[in-house]
Amino acid sequence: MTTRSPMSSARKWRTVRAASTAAVVAALLIPAGAAHAADVVSQGTGRLVETSLLGTNVTDNALALRGARAINSDASGDVTVDQPLDASAIAGLIGVSAGSTNLFGDNGVIQLGAVGQYAQARDDGSSSAFAGAVSAAPSLIGVSTVTPSNVGSPTANQSATFRLGSSSAPVGLSIDIGVLASSAQQAADGTQTGQYVLSDADFAVDGTVVSGVLAIINPALDTLISLANTSGAGLTNPFSSGRVELTLDDLTAAAGVASVNDLPAGTDLLSFVPQAVANKITTQVDSVLDSASALADRLRSNIFTAAAGLALQTAVSTAQATISPVLSGISGTLVTPLSDAVTQLAQMQVNVQSTGSDGSFTQTALRLGLGPSGSLGSVNLANATVGPNAGRLAVPVAGPESLTLAAGLVGIGAAALAGLALRRRARVGAVGV
Q: Which residues lie across from 43 on neighbouring strands?
C-alpha cells in the first residue's frame, strides 16, 4: 500500500502554478520584431544609366538617376514602379563629363531617346526589371509597361547614339543603335535569368589611320569610276565621305559568329571594328573592280564599243596595280594601328551579366568604357537587377500581437493541463490509502 504526503502534493501544485506564470510572462515578453523576417518577398530595379568616373559613382548622388526600384516587403500586393528620367535627372546627366568631354546631351558622347525604367516585385516571390528602349519592352517585359523619356537628341529612330574620337584623331567612331535594352527576371523558385537586345546598329569609322589608307585607294577608284560611268556603269565610290560604314552584321562576321547574341557575355564589340573595316574596304574595292571589269568585257565583245572596252580594262588594270599592294598589306597598315587606337579610345561590352554577393542578379545591355580599359570612366546602359528574393518566407504567418497572445494561451493551457493531471494523481493516491 502506498501513502502520499499532502505536503508533497501541495508543493507540486505550487511548482505548477509558478511554471504557468513564467510561461505567460515569457509569452508576453516576446518582442514584436521576432515575428518579422529581415529579407523582402521580392525586389527589382530598372536603371537606365550608371556611370563611374575615375572610380566615383557620380549618378548614385542623384536620387532621380537611381532608377525604378520596386520592393515587396509583405506580400500585400504586387509592387510596380515605372520611372522615366524626369527633367531633373536629365539635367544631372547632361552635367556629367569625363575630363573636358560631356558624356550626355546634344553635344555629348552619349545621346539617348525613347528610353525608360521599370520594375515589378510580385507577391509570389518573383520579380522583373527593365531598362532601355521602350520599343523593346513588349518582347522583354510586356506591352504598355514603360513610359519613355529622352536624353539629348539622338539620330532619328535611334535609342542610342555615340560619338567617340574624331576625324583628326587616330580613330573616330560614330555609332547609332536602333534598339538597346535589357531585362532581368527572378522566378518564384529563385531561378534568375537575363535578356538583352542590341539591334539595328550602324558604325562609321574615320580618323587618320583610315584616311591614310583611303588617300591611296580613293584617287584610283575615282579615276576608274569616272571612266566606267561614261559607258553607263552607274558606279559610286563607297569611301567618298572619307569614312568606312559598317553594320552590326559586319562586326559579327569579323568575330566569326552569325549574330550578336552568339557572342560570349561581356564581349567588347569595338574589338572587331579594325578587322571589319579591313574586310569592308577589301570587299567594296573588289566589288567596284569586278563591276568595271565585267563592263569592260561586255564593251569589248561589241565591235562598236570595243575601243571603250579596251580603255576601261586598261583603267581597271591601272587601279588594281595601285590598290592591290594596299589590300595585301592592310593588316599591318590598318588593322594593327587601328586596333591600338580603338583600345586606347574606348570599349563597348555587350551582354554584361553579374551576380552580387547578396544574391542579386544584374543584366546590362551595354557597358561603355572610356580610355584604356575604362581608366577614365565607364557607363552602364540599360541595367536590370532582380533579387535577392526571400519569397513567402519573408512574410510572417501572423502579426506580432497574434503570436504574443497565442504564446500566452499555450502557456496557460499547458499549466492547466498539468494541474489537472496532478489533482487526478492525488485522488488516486487518496483512494489507495
A: 71
Please give the residue that has the higher pLDDT: either 269 or 422. Answer: 269
- Give CA–CA dist 90/67, Å, rounded: 12
Cβ-proximal residues to 63 (8 Å cutoff; 6+ apart), any chain: none
**Could you tell me if 152 and 112 are in contact, meaning their C-beta atoms sit under 8 angstroms apart?**
yes
**Distance (Å) of CA 151 to CA 85, 159, 367:** 8, 10, 17
> On the CB side of 300, how many CA atoms lie within 13 Å of its CA?
12
Buried b (16+ CB within 10 A) or exposed e, 80-109: bbbbbbeeebbebbbebbbeeebbbbeebb
pLDDT value, residue 29: 41
Instruction: Check pLDDT > 50 for residue 25.
Output: no
Q: What is the pTM of this model?
A: 0.78
136: left (phi over 0), alpha (psi -120 to 50) or beta: alpha
Kindly report, residue by residue over 379-388, the tens digit of the pLDDT: 888 999 999 9
| Residue ranges per structural domain of the chain | 15-36+396-431, 42-391
Residue 64 and residue 151 in contact, taking contact as beta carbons nearer than 8 Å = no
Which of 193-197, 299-303, 398-402 bottoms out in mean pLDDT, i.e. has the lowest? 398-402
Q: What is the DSSP string of 262-273?
A: GSPTTEEGGGGH
